[in-house]
């Protein structure tokens, strides 16, 4: 829908939308299960209001931006343009519809990056604005806005939660010594980065072997996430325990359930697809982080359930008796699992490699 815009208009819209995307990112660890959304209000080529959604239940991005615009510019917003990274909502949820708030404020034009696929909205916000005579432009910085909330879009469009698999490995593809020792192969910066992955996830999935071997905390504890730690919901910890080796009376289990939600999967008949379906339907989870051993990692990969693989590779060799990063067997080259590298970054002594899988 940008076809009729001149290059100069396109550039202008992209400029302000980029700012709205930056604002949206400020909520990326705290809005779950809601999407991260940013909004900028522009009048006479000046930003007069900025806002972003911070937590579910709190006002949406548009409301914060309008409040700031009112404060700075009185109530005369005629002629102003609102840039929003997601279509303004049209439903009465935990908060009233943002489309109504924009109309009542007298906003003349709304520029939207991406349509909200939530069935409660899904074009309803755009229709409402247009009926009220507000000009609507969509599709500005669409890809970047989509990337803000990949899990939300995937689930709202009928898919399973977005699955990210994280593996910390040596140069020879090993994750720990045979006796379980693994602290620490990767750098401080890599481990700090994992805190970001956890803070974006509604659930962390691990296996009973990892729990019994390492007693890991698998929680968010970093003070460097740019937001108050108390505002970040601890992800649901999902433990795959088909052999029923973990007991509710275990010290580890007791220590966890006092601090965060834990889901123990002891039903051997439940498939990973059924688990992911249940996480989205019953727990409103859109993003999952798999932090597990080689067997669980292989199951997710072989079943084609991984959207993104993040590998932190440390500059060491652990040798042949150390544990492999992935546990699967293949006889023929056509049985290989192929990933596509999308980015690489250094993390002190390590490299962070991010891969996607063709679906
Ligand atoms: C917007 N602006 O900043 C956000 C939107 O329960 P509620 O009332 O918070 O509504 C949540 C839904 O609203 C969410 O699933 C998504 O469709 C939309 N999020 N919409 O206009 C915002 N965060
Ligand atoms: Zn809204």
From TrEMBL:
Pathway: Cofactor biosynthesis; riboflavin biosynthesis; 5-amino-6-(D-ribitylamino)uracil from GTP: step 2/4; Cofactor biosynthesis; riboflavin biosynthesis; 5-amino-6-(D-ribitylamino)uracil from GTP: step 3/4. Residues 11-137 form the CMP/dCMP-type deaminase domain. Keywords: Hydrolase, Metal-binding, Multifunctional enzyme, NADP, Oxidoreductase, Riboflavin biosynthesis, Zinc. Its EC number is 3.5.4.26, 1.1.1.193. Binds 1 zinc ion. Converts 2,5-diamino-6-(ribosylamino)-4(3h)-pyrimidinone 5'-phosphate into 5-amino-6-(ribosylamino)-2,4(1h,3h)-pyrimidinedione 5'-phosphate. This is Riboflavin biosynthesis protein RibD. It comes from Enhydrobacter aerosaccus.
């Amino acid at each position: 829908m940008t076809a009729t815009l001149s290059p100069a208009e396109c550039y202008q819209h992209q400029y302000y939308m980029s700012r709205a995307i930056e604002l949206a990112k400020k909520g990326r660890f705290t809005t779950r299960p809601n999407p991260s959304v940013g909004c900028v209000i522009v009048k006479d080529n000046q930003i007069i209001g900025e806002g972003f959604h911070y937590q579910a239940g709190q006002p949406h991005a548009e409301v914060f931006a309008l409040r700031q615009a009112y404060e700075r510019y009185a109530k005369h917003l005629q002629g102003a343009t609102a840039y929003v990274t997601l279509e303004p909502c049209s439903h009465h949820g935990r908060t009233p519809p943002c489309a109504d708030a924009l109309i009542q404020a007298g906003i003349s034009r709304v520029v939207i990056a991406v349509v909200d696929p939530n069935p409660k909205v899904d074009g309803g916000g755009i229709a409402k604005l247009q009926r009220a005579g507000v000009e609507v432009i969509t599709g500005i910085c669409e890809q970047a806005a989509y990337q803000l909330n990949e899990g939300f879009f995937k689930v709202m469009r009928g898919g399973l939660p977005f699955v990210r698999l994280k593996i910390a490995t040596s140069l020879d593809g090993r994750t720990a010594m045979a006796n379980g020792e693994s602290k620490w192969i990767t750098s401080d910066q890599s481990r700090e980065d994992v805190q970001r992955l956890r803070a974006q996830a509604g659930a962390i999935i691990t296996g009973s072997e990892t729990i019994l071997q390492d007693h890991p905390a698998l929680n968010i504890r970093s003070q460097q996430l740019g937001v108050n730690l108390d505002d970040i919901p601890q992800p649901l910890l999902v433990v795959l325990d088909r052999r029923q080796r973990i007991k509710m009376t275990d010290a580890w289990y007791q220590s966890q359930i006092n601090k965060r939600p834990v889901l123990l999967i002891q039903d051997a008949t439940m498939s990973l697809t059924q688990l992911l379906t249940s996480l989205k339907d019953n727990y409103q989870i859109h993003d999952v982080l798999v932090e597990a051993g080689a067997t669980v990692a292989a199951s997710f990969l072989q079943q084609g359930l991984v959207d993104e693989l993040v590998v932190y590779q440390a500059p060491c060799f652990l040798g042949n008796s150390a544990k492999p990063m992935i546990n699967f067997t293949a006889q023929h080259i056509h049985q290989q699992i192929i990933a596509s590298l999308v980015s690489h970054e250094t993390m002190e002594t390590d490299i962070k490699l991010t891969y996607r899988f063709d679906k």
